[in-house]
Amino acid sequence: MFVRLAQLLLPVFSIIFIGGFCRYRNYINRDLVKYGNEAIFKVFLPLSLFLSIYRLDNIGKISLLPLCFLMSYTVLIFILGWIYNTRLCRDVQTRSVMIQSYIRPNLLLFGLPIAASYYTDQGYELVILNLLLMVPFVNIMALLCFELGINGRVPLRTIAGNIMKNKIVTGAMAGLVCRLIGLEIPELFLKPVQSLSSVAGPLGLFLIGAGLSFQSVRKEGLCVADSVLWKNFLVPYTAIFIAVLLGLRGQSLFVIAIALLSPVAISSYTYAIVYTNKDKLAAMLVMMTTLVSLGSVSLAFFVLMKYSLI
């Protein structure tokens, strides 16, 4: 079992640490990290999601029960996080950044690579579809964190516009439409798409490591510790416990586990820049939850695999 756990997580975390080492040695600079992430979110990931969904078999028969569980649980965490941070008398900007860190996991650059590593010898269409459909939902909830928390309104037009302009959502929806209408795309055109999409996972993990920075951690130490406690332990472990009690097993439980165990999404930093002056805090939350996930993910999967729950 230890060998299986190492095979699952070691490749993912190794790439992250290699990225961190290269940044530490100044082999790459901050601009490369910035523009590399832009290329991932605007080119490589949309192509990867398009291809993943386009090649799903029996898409109409895939259960969306894990997605329903994740959506309901995310709304609950949103409400509890709002109450918790309000009672701590945090300002609206800090509160919004903190709540976003509780509910916005790195599904695409962290969750999907681990899923691909775990299900190397069998289909995992249920995992892919549920994780991909969760992406626009967490984006909407993150947007609500800032619009509702700072501007005091629910901007339906802004939310709709944000979804339409999101290249990742566009790629996923294009793949879904092509799959549902039965459009056959010649393999000649799919091969370059596959070559480009294969870059998304490794490059994304590498840039996660390269983007880690320990500057100003002490200044926001309490908020960082708070976010780590919620995102890496309380939120995922409680959800896994509830899901097990409800009888969820196999790929359904895997979806819930990896979706909530994933660290804070890199894109949360972008929202923090647009809506607040707490972008450094948001960056630290991404960094620390990513580092701590090495232990929290390993522990969770050790237990799940030991008792054959996934």
From TrEMBL:
Transmembrane parts of this sequence: 6-27, 39-56, 62-83, 103-120, 126-148, 168-190, 196-217, 229-248, 254-274, 281-304
Main location as per UniProt: membrane
Alphabetized Gene3D superfamilies for the sequence: 1.20.1530.20
UniProt subcellular location: Cell membrane
Membrane topology annotation: Multi-pass membrane protein
Top-level taxon of the source organism: Bacteria
Endoplasmic reticulum among keywords: no
UniProt keyword Cell membrane, yes or no: yes
Keyword vocabulary terms for this entry: Cell membrane, Membrane, Transmembrane, Transmembrane helix, Transport
Classification via PANTHER family: AUXIN EFFLUX CARRIER FAMILY PROTEIN
Family recorded in the similarity comment: Belongs to the auxin efflux carrier (TC 2.A.69) family.
Protein name: AEC family transporter
